[in-house]
Design a protein that fits this description.
5 copies of one chain form a homopentamer. Chain A has 12 helices and 6 strands. Chain A is α+β, with helices and mostly antiparallel strands.
Chain lengths: 339, 339, 339, 339, 339
Amino acid sequence: MEIFVYRNGASAVEENFSAADLPELLADKKNLVWVDLLGETDEQLAEIKSVLLNVFKFHPLTVEDTLETRNQPKVEAFPDYLYFIVHGIKPEETSSANFLTKELDGYLGDNYVVTFHDERFKSIKAVKHQIRTSTFACRRGAAYLLHQILDQIVDLYMPVLDDFDSSITELEDRVFALKKGDDAILEEIMDLRRSVTRLKRISARQLDVLYRISHGEFPQIPENLLPFYRDVHDHLQRISDLSENYRDLVAGLFDIHFSVVANKTNDIIKFLTIFSAIWLPLSFMAGVYGMNFENMPELKTRNGYFFVLGSMVLVAISLLVYFWRKGWILQGSDKKSDE
Amino acid sequence: MEIFVYRNGASAVEENFSAADLPELLADKKNLVWVDLLGETDEQLAEIKSVLLNVFKFHPLTVEDTLETRNQPKVEAFPDYLYFIVHGIKPEETSSANFLTKELDGYLGDNYVVTFHDERFKSIKAVKHQIRTSTFACRRGAAYLLHQILDQIVDLYMPVLDDFDSSITELEDRVFALKKGDDAILEEIMDLRRSVTRLKRISARQLDVLYRISHGEFPQIPENLLPFYRDVHDHLQRISDLSENYRDLVAGLFDIHFSVVANKTNDIIKFLTIFSAIWLPLSFMAGVYGMNFENMPELKTRNGYFFVLGSMVLVAISLLVYFWRKGWILQGSDKKSDE
Amino acid sequence: MEIFVYRNGASAVEENFSAADLPELLADKKNLVWVDLLGETDEQLAEIKSVLLNVFKFHPLTVEDTLETRNQPKVEAFPDYLYFIVHGIKPEETSSANFLTKELDGYLGDNYVVTFHDERFKSIKAVKHQIRTSTFACRRGAAYLLHQILDQIVDLYMPVLDDFDSSITELEDRVFALKKGDDAILEEIMDLRRSVTRLKRISARQLDVLYRISHGEFPQIPENLLPFYRDVHDHLQRISDLSENYRDLVAGLFDIHFSVVANKTNDIIKFLTIFSAIWLPLSFMAGVYGMNFENMPELKTRNGYFFVLGSMVLVAISLLVYFWRKGWILQGSDKKSDE
Amino acid sequence: MEIFVYRNGASAVEENFSAADLPELLADKKNLVWVDLLGETDEQLAEIKSVLLNVFKFHPLTVEDTLETRNQPKVEAFPDYLYFIVHGIKPEETSSANFLTKELDGYLGDNYVVTFHDERFKSIKAVKHQIRTSTFACRRGAAYLLHQILDQIVDLYMPVLDDFDSSITELEDRVFALKKGDDAILEEIMDLRRSVTRLKRISARQLDVLYRISHGEFPQIPENLLPFYRDVHDHLQRISDLSENYRDLVAGLFDIHFSVVANKTNDIIKFLTIFSAIWLPLSFMAGVYGMNFENMPELKTRNGYFFVLGSMVLVAISLLVYFWRKGWILQGSDKKSDE
Amino acid sequence: MEIFVYRNGASAVEENFSAADLPELLADKKNLVWVDLLGETDEQLAEIKSVLLNVFKFHPLTVEDTLETRNQPKVEAFPDYLYFIVHGIKPEETSSANFLTKELDGYLGDNYVVTFHDERFKSIKAVKHQIRTSTFACRRGAAYLLHQILDQIVDLYMPVLDDFDSSITELEDRVFALKKGDDAILEEIMDLRRSVTRLKRISARQLDVLYRISHGEFPQIPENLLPFYRDVHDHLQRISDLSENYRDLVAGLFDIHFSVVANKTNDIIKFLTIFSAIWLPLSFMAGVYGMNFENMPELKTRNGYFFVLGSMVLVAISLLVYFWRKGWILQGSDKKSDE
């Protein structure tokens, strides 16, 4: 539990308070108090629960929701405060095409912001750094401080999207370069599809939360700060649009993969057909003169053998020309697409 | 018919009443009465019908709806009471990828809750156990008791979703491990698709019911209990989102299955082509020297036979190298995807 | 033209009136008059037109709409009456997966119901039977009588849906049992798809009509009868949901059919490949020893022939083992899916 | 420029006025004036522009829109008049599955209707014929005259839809009768798809225009004429629904085509497989006895040759029986689907 | 920074002002001031930032948005001015099926328009040329001047759409002419798909901006100018509809490509099958008479050889006739689709 207090007009935020100091700090309406709660262990969770219920007197249901994870983004208004859940995302370390969501629960009151998370947030850390170096954000009050936090969270969506972008491009290249129908590529497309769908969904709900916050629905957000929230909303809108875009592209990857495989199969069958079409008649010709009839005049002629060999070459060339005119061989693109 | 009565301020709920006691119990507005009706046999149904019509004087049409099953979730307001239909689900015993729906009809009045079902409900049983051990829920009135029942019903959706999750993962693994195009896997995908679609649909209607209940549309739900209903709504929202997610994934299974089969077919045809391409020319060469021309100089040479055998090996090797350079053989992934 | 009159308080409906009696009957506001018009012949149509225009004085455009078929379901309010078009459906006799729509036009006034149809309606017949045996429905007034008619019409949708259900199940079985790519099954899937799409569309428009009627938009429907109309609406909602469901399933049939065919093709090509892969090398071996070189030492050895035969068996067995280990033969499912 | 004037109470419309007469004609509010403008040449367009701007004093932007084509259907209200654009369609002469759109721009004032088009309209011609033979439509005022025009335009959509209907049926038959994968059919499906999509889009916008006109949004349309406009709206609704229907069916054609081709390919590969499976072993047998080993006891037996021939027949029959039992040959449907 | 000033009643716009003149120019409410800002270098950006913040005193957030690119189209109202972002597009030089977006930010005040862009805009240049030659647009005030700019931007969408049109047609032709499954065509379809999707998305957001501007939501736009904005909106609507249309067509290209490849594969396999079906039995026949049995009576007959050759021709012809009757060869379309 980290507590930051900005006393009106002070030149720096104060830190190092404990839960016991909170009632007094909150009582002075001119203070801005930010309580950042990190609930990793059971003891921490127990203490946090008691603070939320007894010091802040938040609704028991919201406290319950706060402490458990796996909630959807939402925002709910209570007479004295606003309860919100937002999701941050971070790239998964093992796979570039995947990401993890992290839940941030919080409360916004007249002169305080409470944030709760059960793992470290890069964006929370950034805001802490910021208020330690400048009191600018604090001077503008609790709603502005919250805006800073949300802004940081939304900004960190971008690197994940950039990862998607390069994953899609890379997969597309690999689909076209497809060597032997390998299933690994399909698994990756499937994974990416799943990630992008998830991102779309998460940002959609988040967007809803920010839309409601930024359009003056809640009295806790002063009107002069609405443009700032609208700005976060617009950023998220862009992210949502991009992830919709990526969803389309990933869906398209399946189509391409399928078409590329169909093309390859077509090429292979063409190869097989040409091959068979040339050797089968030649073998037949050889077979004919391998028959053991007593009366086969050609066999006795002097140059019969050479004549037959010549005919075979002729047949082979005719067939090759036929296929070439049909557009099945050579003519440039065969090489390109097969080798 | 089980009747639970909580008299205001009492330390425990009373049970073992009969239908005949109901008018008196209901008349005292300070009592909270829960009538749980199980209609399995025709006699039970007849008695239930008479109680609903004569004791509670519910609208004849709602009573008719109550007694027949196969209704959609809905909620309808009448001057004195709220009529609702919700669906519980339970996994089917024989198949992990399937589930059964169970209909729960009910009425919520000022001081009573009536529930009707034609088979046992695990969630109803849980709430009964709860009010027998603690009067906490009863002290908060009829609407809160109903909230407890709905909460339990919605919580029991989760195990079914978890089943889906593992079914999808398992099917995906099997699709990729596909040995010989087996149709069994297709049947399972189809079954799952059907189940997930059903779940999506059911939860959509249910969501609608809970949205209306939890947004203050009905005076029967006191305003201070709305957050509790919103909580159930949010849980259901999450379930609905997840089932939407699963629907996407199951739809994707078809795409993958198809692509995997196309890949396999491609591999097989490649195999066939390579095989034919190697043996056909060799057979032709053998055929040539099997011809019976009298004048075939090679036949008389001393090492003609061995020379021809050597040429055959050479041709075979050249072709293998050709295919290897084309990327059709070896190079690692062939093994992986076929064996 | 059949006219049913229920005089207030009477114990039975009266029949056998003619068009000439209508003005008098309608003038007494305490009568309930139901005029059921069957317009099969041109004379009937002419008489009906005159009655609608001169006796009831309905708007000329609605009369025109009434007499021509091929209208969409709709409901339109006029100061004194409500004009509605609904569609009944009946299974087509020749094909279980198809249905015909029948249009019912009608007017609802304060004390009368007018229904027009150009072919016999099973549901109209049922309501006639009902009011002949009991005056219950008539006592509740014109709007209730109309409710009875609509209820019967909607109830008769159900058998068509049941037909769909069994058609889909049967088709699914046949798709999986697919013997030789037969197109007949595709034609049936296409037919069913068309029927289900039509049903979806019809019920959607109908739903719209019933929604408007059942939500108090029209003063012609007394408020105490709204629950009855809502009930019809709910039934139709269920039908609409089911037909949506069937649409999904039928769309899925194409996917399965396609996948099953792909599986079969894969199996066949596998068979061809195995066959070729075994016989081609064997034939080559026979070809080698069919060459006519003078100096082929093996030919002179005593057991050369038997040795070669043995090698051939060995090669064949090795190849079979190879394919078996690749998972291309035996291992159970091959039999199952092909025979 | 054709001007029709109906003076109140007159028994016929008057014609043969020129642009110069317009101010006077329009000044008398009891006249109904219809100005039909055909702008084919540049001179006509110049004159029309001047009339619209100087005589009628329409907003310059609407005049600009009027004179250029390629606008969307729309309706816009100005204080004194209504400006509308609707699209008529006519079948293209060269192809039954295609149609052309024609734009009709117009203005509706208190006592006048102005219509502009840059090619001849069959429906305009029909209305002219109608008002020349009967003053009925004119007596009902400008809004009713406009209704007549719109009604005619919408009615002429129907033949195009009927063309679609027969095109789809014909294409479906041809898809099933598919002989040699011919691409011509694909081009036609694609063309039809494009046409139907276009029709859907056009009727959707048009529907919007008529919905707004027919629901009392504009004071230029007297309330007693609204049912007439609603009637046109309903017709268009039906057309829009039908074209939606056709869109589904055409989209389905691709699925069927694809499935039919897959079926055919499957049949062909089956044929190839059976053929190869029979001849390959027989050829091998012949090859064995064509070997030149000195010690091949069978070659010397008296009936060896006949015995081998018999074995060959036996092998062939066994294989045929095997394939027949596998369901790959005969059994009726093979014939049907291939010949 | 280019500043254009139109003093009320003047006969020409004045230019060549600097940032320092702005406060004075803006103070006179009868002047119309257009400040066009081109921010290519860092110095320019710094100066622009200072002008926007200090001279115009725009909200700091909007100034931040203005200076950074990659924003979505939007419009936001502030008490004294309107802030908007719109996107222009221009075809990419290297590829006809691609386009670049250019962001234009701007502010509309009572007597001024501010536009900002970080690269040259063809449409801005056109408007500058226009106001230099005629003061018509300036006389109508700031909102009209803005309308001119937007109109030019939207007009320049059209050439990009025309490029799409020809790209689609060309791709369609190439898909049908498909020679050897070449992947290049798939890459182009994919590129086009991406471009069209982007255009759809951009025009959708833009449409939203113009809808809000043109429907009287903002007091900065005088009511008499709304028709002009509605006109721009209608143009954009048409573009949006067209791009939706193109999206459908491009999606269709995949279907066709796939079907065409399937057709080709079918043709090739048919060819292979016919070829094999003819040569395999002939080779077998030759093989039979190549056997070395001592007792093969046919071998000794005089015309055995010629009789066998004749039989071979007969078998070949019979098979050809069989395939011809099956519809697999000749009959016209084979030639057409393969060569």
